[in-house]
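User: My collaborator and I are trying to settle a disagreement about how two of our proteins should look. Neither of us wants to argue from intuition anymore, so we agreed to look at predicted structures for both before our next call. Could you fold the first one, then the second, and keep them clearly separated?

Assistant: That sounds like a sensible way to settle it. I'll keep them separate. The first protein:
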Amino acid sequence: MLNALVTLAAEEAEHNPLLPAMYDIVWSAVCFVIILLVAWKVALPNVAKMLDERSAAIEGNIAKADEAQKQAEAALEEYTRQLAEARAEAGQIRESAREDGKKIIAEAKETATVEAARITAAAQAQIEAERQSTLVALRSEVGTLAIDLAGSVVGETLSDDARATAVVDRFLADLEASEKAAK
C-alpha cells in the first residue's frame, strides 16, 4: 500500500519528492562553497599553525630530553671518574699510613732499645760502684778482723798502720789468688 501512495503522490506532483528543488541545491552549494573557503582560508591555517607549534614544542622537548640525558651521562661519567680517583687516593692514604705506622714502630723500637741499653749500662755502672764500695768496706772489715786475729795469734798488737795495711793487702791478694785458682 505504501507503494501505491508513493505512486499516487508522484503523479500529482511534477517532480520526485526524494530530490530537492533546484534552488535548494544551488543555495546549498553556494553556502557549502562559502563555508569551504572560510575553512580553507581561516581555520586550516590556524590549525596548521597550531599543529606546527605543537610539533616544534614536541621536537624541542625531545631535544631537551636528549640534552638532559647527555648531561646526565656526562655527570655519571664524571661521578664515576671522581669516585675512582677518590678510591685511588684513599688507597694511597692507607698505604702512606701503613708506612708511617711501620716507621713509628721502628722508631719506637729503636728508642726503646737505646733506652734499655742506657738503663742497663747505668744499672751495671751502679752495680759496679756498689761492688767496689762493698769490696772496700769488706777489705776494711776483713783487714780489721785479720789484724785482730793476727794480733791474738802472734800475741802482739799490730799498731803500725803501714805494716798492718801491708799484711792485710798480702792476705787479701792470697785470698783472691786462691779464689781464681779454684775457678
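The second protein, kept apart from the first:
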Amino acid sequence: MKLSRIALAGGVAASTVLLIAGPAAAHVSVQPVGEAAKGGYATLNFKVPNERDQASTVKLEVNFPADHPLSSVTPQAVPGWKIDITKSKLDKPLEVHGKKITEAVSKVTWTADEGEIAPGYFQQFPVSVGALPEDADQLVFKAIQTYDNKEVVRWIEEPAAGGEEPDSPAPVLKLTAAAEDHHGGAADDAKKADDHKAADTEASSKKSSTVASSSSSDTTARTLGVIGIVIGIGGIAFGVLAGRRRSA
C-alpha cells in the first residue's frame, strides 16, 4: 500500500511537470534558415504553435526591433493568410549601398483569410531580412498571437541573460559571427561555380590545342606520304623508259 502511494505521488508530480512545461515549450519562436550572420541577410521562420484545445489561431503580429532597424524585410506568401506590412520613420536614417533609407518595417501582420492554425497544429511564416546588425548578438521580435475566440497572447517578455525563461517569452534570434562577404553561403557557392567554370574553360582550351596539334601532325604525315608515292611512281616510270631506250 505504501509503495502504491509513493508511485501514485510520483506519477502526479511527473504529470504536473509536464503540464507546467508544456505551454512554456510551445511559444512563438524564430529560427533562421541556415545561419543569421552579423551584417548579412537571412531567411527567418516564425513558428506559431496552437496552444488551445478549443480555439484556432487566426492572427499573428511580429514587431521588428526599433533599436536595430532592418532596411530589407520581405515576407513570403503563405496560402490562406493575408499579409500587412507596417513601416515607420527612422530617427536616424540608414545608409545602404550608398542610398539613404528613412523608413523601415516595424511590424508584419498575418491574418487568416481562408486558413487558420487549428488545435494540435503549427504554422511557419517565412521572412527574408537584412542587413542584420553588426553591433548586436541577438534580435528580439515581440509577437502577439490572436485566437478566433478573441483571446490574445502577448509574447513580449525579453529573456534575461543567464536567467530563467519568462512565462511569455518574445522570439529571440541569435546572430552568428559576420561572414567575410556579408552574404554567407550563396556568395561562396557563386565563387566556387566561377572557379569551376574557369577550370573547365582552361581544360577545354588545352584539349582544343592538343586536338589542333594532333590534326596538324596527321595532315603533314599524309602530305609527305602522298609526295613519297608520287616520287616512287616517277622513279619506276623513268626506269622503264630507260630500259626501252637501251633495247632499241
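Some points you might bring to the call about the second protein. The longest strand covers residues 81-96. Residues 1-24, 184-194 have pLDDT under 50 and may be disordered.
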